[in-house]
Design goal:
There is one protein chain. By secondary structure, the chain is an alpha+beta fold. It folds into three domains: 3-175, Uridine Diphospho-n-acetylenolpyruvylglucosamine Reductase, domain 3 (2-Layer Sandwich); 179-268, Alpha-Beta Plaits, CATH 3.30.70.2190; 271-339, Alpha-Beta Plaits, CATH 3.30.70. Helices cover 28% and strands 24% of the residues. It has helices at residues 9-17, 68-77, 90-93, 101-106, 114-117, 150-156, 190-202, 231-244, 257-268, 290-295, 323-328, 352-365; strands at residues 3-4, 23-26, 40-43, 50-54, 59-63, 80-81, 124-130, 136-140, 165-172, 174-175, 179-186, 207-213, 222-229, 252-254, 279-284, 301-305, 310-315, 334-339. The strands form four sheets. It has an eight-stranded antiparallel beta sheet with strand order 14-11-13-12-16-17-15-18, sandwiched between helices. The protein has a five-stranded antiparallel beta sheet with strand order 4-5-9-7-8. The chain is globular, with a radius of gyration of 21 Å. The chain starts with a strand and ends in a 15-residue tail after the last helix.
Length: 380
């Protein structure tokens, strides 16, 4: 497969301006894309380096191809982190490669802490990208008070490289908390677990993670609720949450740093579905609708995140096409096929109105249809 790896933004601009065929835009090649064999790969992996880091201002600027691990290591050295907790798709997809900071924002990759801190796009301050005409565009700023071009910055995050090739991102960081505590309870069914999550989220005790495993490591259901902060704050809030949730059972508190980190990585990266056959779906619904959606599908296994607002679903090969999306149609959810081939498009089909709006945006940013054609935007 032909692959282009420009080393500078100018070289990238010239490649696009002179292009006569479409591209598969990617960073380190670790995020999901349909039809992986089609198109010339246009990679940003050689556009690397942290350009600016101001720990006191909680901001960083990095080129798009900078490895995510390099960014996280620089932040950790200053006691900071990417608060939106981006997942690593490699184990779930069964692929290699190096995740990049540009791909995190291009795909709006957000993990369990999204319910408390927001999504990746909420931390994006500014962006540089090359559009379908080869123009180099800068939008937004490098500090939190600068909101110039706010809407365009958000538009690029989650566009999966269909509007332009991101070359640089500026984003907010946050301090790493001193202590993490996880309340754990075995044996709750899905519906009871989601009710417990909702009760915890409605409390004033700042929950930063709420997940449910249908099958824990010992085969029993496990309900997880995370709180973070200073040691004393975590201890106090854990005790208060136990009181709020006492009707569900006797909760235990885990505070060992290694165990809590591994436990939430297990949720974040959907490790229960690694190295297993079947189609993996990422479903967004109202939390209270989640147990019913899963119960209506035969033979599936679910991992619930975001208090039930996010369902990771492992579906058997024999599940009828349309069953997953048909099952969420009545509750207004949407589903993305993350792994596995099928008759349905990867992304949720759009309403005619939204599809027309998206096509209008593409015609402005990528008038020749160069970037990831067919990846997004199918009308229902």
């Amino acid at each position: 497969m032909r692959k282009l790896d420009p080393k500078t933004e100018t070289e990238l601009s010239e490649l696009i301006a002179n292009a006569s065929e479409p591209f598969r835009v990617q960073g380190g090649g670790t995020r999901m894309q349909d039809n992986p064999g089609s198109g010339t790969v246009l990679s940003t992996r050689n556009l690397t380096g942290i350009e600016l880091y101001e720990p006191g201002a909680l901001t960083m600027v990095a080129k798009a191809g900078t490895p995510l691990a390099e960014v996280e290591a620089a932040l950790a050295a200053e006691g900071q982190r990417l608060a939106f907790e981006p997942m690593d798709h490699r184990g779930l997809l069964g692929i290699a490669g190096t995740p990049t900071i540009g791909s995190v924002f291009a795909a709006n990759v957000s993990g369990p802490r999204r319910i408390q801190t927001g999504a990746a796009r909420d931390f994006l301050l500014g962006v540089r990208f090359v559009d379908g005409r080869g123009r180099m565009i800068s939008n937004g700023g490098r500090v939190m008070k600068n909101v110039t071009g706010y809407d365009l910055v958000k538009l690029m995050s989650g566009s999966f490289g269909t509007l332009g090739v991101i070359t640089e991102v500026a984003f907010k960081t946050l301090p790493t908390p001193q202590t993490t505590g996880v309340l754990l309870l075995e044996g709750l069914d899905d519906a009871a677990a989601i009710r417990a999550h909702c009760a915890a989220m409605a409390s004033p005790f700042e929950v930063t993670g709420a997940a449910q495993l249908q099958k824990g490591l010992d085969g029993a259901p496990v309900t997880m609720i995370r709180i973070e902060g200073t040691e004393n704050s975590v201890a106090y809030r854990a005790d208060e949450l136990r009181k709020v949730l006492k009707s569900f059972g006797d909760w235990t508190l885990e505070t060992d740093p290694d165990r809590t980190r591994k436990g939430w990585k297990y949720i974040r990266d959907v490790e229960p579905f690694h190295n297993r056959e079947g189609t993996v779906w990422r479903i967004s619904v109202k939390p209270t609708d989640a147990p019913g959606v899963v119960a209506a599908l035969y033979g599936v296994e679910a991992v619930y995140d975001w208090s039930g607002g996010l369902i990771w679903l492992l579906a058997p090969k024999g599940l009828a096409p349309g069953s997953v999306r048909g099952g969420i149609a009545q509750c207004g959810g949407h589903a993305t096929r993350i792994r596995g081939h099928g008759d349905e498009p990867m992304f949720q089909p759009l309403s005619p109105t939204v599809a027309a709006l998206q096509e209008g945006l593409r015609s402005k940013f990528d008038p020749r249809g160069l970037f990831n054609p067919g990846l997004m935007g199918q009308a229902a």
